[in-house]
């Protein structure tokens, strides 16, 4: 239990600090670039998001699952994963070149995308995270993320001092991430003995990961397709406004990712030990995620204008309404993270692929209908509907196949904390909103720590 708590706290705190530095970096970038240039910057990385899953292909998730079941296999698994990712990174790089030419973007945008495409090779280095996940040494992963965000911020000031433009900002972002993996490599030194990949081994892990990889790929499509559609149906200003709201959402949804990275090996072992333990960890995880997601969404909704204007200045005021909607997509993302990881633990990742395919069709259809009528707000509504549908379908499959029910009496605490959040916002309305938000963070952190680390720790005691 203690190690699990350390992992969760390390990941969340690491993400908090790296997100703060990242938020400051984005603040400087959007002030330095014009709205149109920031739109190009956003578009480049949104397009790249379609290709990161091509390289990862679910390999890290499956390798972590298999290594949690049999730690002795981690060396051969990781060797096979690295070999496959090198091949996939090269394939992905050339696919990007073909797609950019096919979409017919201006030469300046194509240049930005080409520079950003080198970040695909960082995904290969990300393979070493598997060792840290399985051995519960996520502190080093958190440290690497904080280091990367600090380096990126320092480099941004350097780029601005030299008067360089968008492509230089993209290059230093990629380089800072590469440096972060140096820490990961140092942390895994001595823990990994490379082996020679075999053709049967490569085929076996690729076959297992393919459904998860396709699901991740399709998820990336439906989560980023709205930016691409906005670039074609509207203009780069719309991309900048919507992208600014999406970036803030990304700072919210690091929490479920961090928590599930820590809980994934625990869920895997609980699955092996029996249905009762598996169900208890699953139900508790859902409750804990909702205990964080819903109050945060309420608070972000109430202070959406202040958040946008603090980060992006009043120039980005058109993004306020989209952000106010997107924070509720975050609640769906919290839930869908749990459903997706649990389907993998239960060896039912192929259903995740089907859910993602449905979500892609639904999201594209909704965007075609809503963007022309409502602009970036329509894209936000499409995202909210899609994310809740994904979570709902995932939980429906887990109920049907595994008899796992996410709901429990503990969710009454979530309702209570949400009501207290509204009351707190009303009481602190006249106070400086940054101070009020700091008090809210202290309040919510204390609540989560009390319930998850004190009252409910017995759940993990025998796992």
Task: Describe the 3D structure.
There is one protein chain. 84% of the residues lie in helices and 0% in strands. The model has no long low-confidence stretch (mean pLDDT 81). The protein has one domain (2-460). By secondary structure, the protein is an all-alpha fold. The chain has helices at residues 2-32, 35-48, 52-56, 59-69, 74-103, 107-116, 120-125, 129-134, 138-162, 166-187, 199-233, 236-252, 254-273, 275-302, 304-312, 320-345, 349-374, 376-402, 411-427, 433-455. It has 20 helices and no strands. It starts with a helix and ends in an 8-residue tail after the last helix.
Query: SSE order in H/E notation?
Result: HHHHHHHHHHHHHHHHHHHH
Tell me the total number of β-strands. 0
The total domain count is: 1
Quaternary state, please? single chain
- Estimate the global geometry from the Cα principal axes: globular
Taking the sheet with the most strands, its summary is: none
Question: What is the overall number of helices?
Answer: 20
Q: Which ranges are low-confidence, i.e. pLDDT below 50, for 5 or more consecutive residues?
A: none
Proportion of residues in extended strands: under 5%
Query: How would you classify the helix and strand content by structural class?
Result: mainly alpha
The chain-level mean pLDDT equals 81
CA-based gyration radius:
21 Å
- Kindly report how far apart the N and C termini lie: 8 Å
Helical content, roughly? Answer: over 70%
